[in-house]
Specification:
four-stranded mixed beta sheet; about 20% helix
């Protein structure tokens, strides 16, 4: 029997791990699950079933601002309203797209992207 994949975590390269933790906590509703060092030099943050690792640019300078993830949500508009209430800048949407998804997008202060989407019924 082949091994099963049981999950994944994206790794975002950031300039300042502590500042990124604050952004994800205060603007996106994540919580710190693990931090290494004080101030943190590596962190794992979570919201619901989504886990992100935050790695300092000193470990991978070419990766700064180049990461992105797509997160499926049950209600894009409710998520958007909650994020806006936390002061999170929305860079796109909400918008219904031709491939049947309603999406919003956010960029963190380092340029990493998070797109949130939910299926929508075709018009007509």
């Amino acid at each position: 029997m082949a091994a099963q994949l049981t999950g994944f975590s994206a790794v975002f390269t950031v300039r300042d791990v502590a500042a990124s933790i604050a952004f994800y906590r205060d603007r996106l509703g994540f919580r710190l699950q693990f931090g290494m060092g004080e101030p943190p030099t590596y962190a794992i943050i979570e919201r619901d079933t989504v886990s992100l690792h935050l790695m300092p640019a000193s470990q991978s300078p070419d990766g700064l601002g180049t990461s992105s993830i797509y997160v499926y949500v049950d209600d894009v508009d409710a998520l958007r309203d909650g994020l806006v209430a936390m002061g999170c800048p929305i860079s796109f949407g909400p918008e219904d797209l031709s491939y049947g998804m309603r999406e919003i997008a956010v960029r963190d202060p380092d340029g990493n992207g998070l797109t949130f989407g939910a299926p929508v019924s075709p018009a007509g």
